[in-house]
Amino acid sequence: MRKIAYVFPGQGSQYVGMGYDFYREFSQASDVFHSAETALRYNLSDIIFRGPEEELNRTVNTQPAILTVSYAIYSVLTSLGLPKPDYVAGHSLGEYTALLVAGGVELFQAVRLAHLRGKYMQEAVEEGKGMMAAILKLPPEKVEEICRLAQDEGIVEPANYNSPEQTVIAGEKKAVEKASEIAKQMGGKVIPLKVSVPSHCSLMKSAADAFRIKLAQTPIQNVSIPIVQNYTAREHRMAPEIRENLYRQIFSPVRWYQSVLYMVQQGVDTFVEIGPKNVLSKLIQQTVPHVRVLNVEKVEHVEQVLKVLT
């Protein structure tokens, strides 16, 4: 029997104007935007729809913005008959949207958690000290070796195992730059990322420890739809495990392609990316080319996806 997974994007997929067509055309979407603003007590929609880009790209705004847009689109899809998924997952910040969809947390709490997570991550490392870079055309084991070779310059670690062809590294700027040079010498392609926070490495431990207190204070429920979490690349349903994995995720690598492979091993043959851009769709296609991958970013995508799934 066919199994479906809904997946949700993380930081890096944002752009000014995302989700506006859903906001304009569907009350289900505009209700989500207004609820997010009530939770945050500031005009998030204005930042999302009008920018400026620098303001949207501030981690403290980016994280609740992507969650809000993704969940607004999901809310429209469910109102039009989108079936319940067999699994949910999200990349980094997207895991909070996945948890919201699985029923583990309410929208009000999810938006606040995303905002606070961004705030603590932004504050953990001073501007200009950290760096992230994507390394392409080298296998993950080779990237791990490169990080070890560059550690005399400081902290540098694998941060995102995005696909068998793409691993993102994060850490202190000099160490990431040295690792990037070694990667090029080994035949890899390096793309420095335009981010202000070196996510998913040990530099984020202080952010995670501060955030852990907020996580402990947030009601998280057991879920009926299994959530495949970044930290373990395995499914979880129980609230204590989910909470612990959300804490560890901040300073540990995102095991994205391993999560995709796990879902395929459980019988998933259709992935639907819900949210801005289609970054995850491309990574899934690189990892498992034989599965069906759909994405919903614009209103024009809705009919086609519902036709396939219903």
UniProtKB/TrEMBL annotation:
Its EC number is 2.3.1.39. SMART domains: PKS_AT (SM00827). The keyword Zinc-finger does not apply. GO terms for molecular function: [acyl-carrier-protein] S-malonyltransferase activity. It comes from the Bacteria. InterPro entries: Ac_transferase_dom_sf (IPR001227), Acyl_transferase_dom (IPR014043), Acyl_Trfase/lysoPLipase (IPR016035), Mal-CoA-ACP_Trans/PKS_FabD (IPR050858), Malonyl_CoA-ACP_transAc (IPR024925), Malonyl_CoA-ACP_transAc_FabD (IPR004410), Malonyl_transacylase_ACP-bd (IPR016036). The active site is at residues 92, 200. It holds the Pfam family Acyl_transf_1. Keywords: Acyltransferase, Transferase. GO terms for biological process: fatty acid biosynthetic process. It catalyses: holo-[ACP] + malonyl-CoA = malonyl-[ACP] + CoA. Residues 7-296 form the Malonyl-CoA:ACP transacylase (MAT) domain. Belongs to the fabD family. PANTHER family: MALONYL-COA-ACYL CARRIER PROTEIN TRANSACYLASE, MITOCHONDRIAL (PTHR42681:SF1). This is Malonyl CoA-acyl carrier protein transacylase. It comes from Thermocrinis minervae. The lineage of its organism: Bacteria, Pseudomonadati, Aquificota, Aquificia, Aquificales.
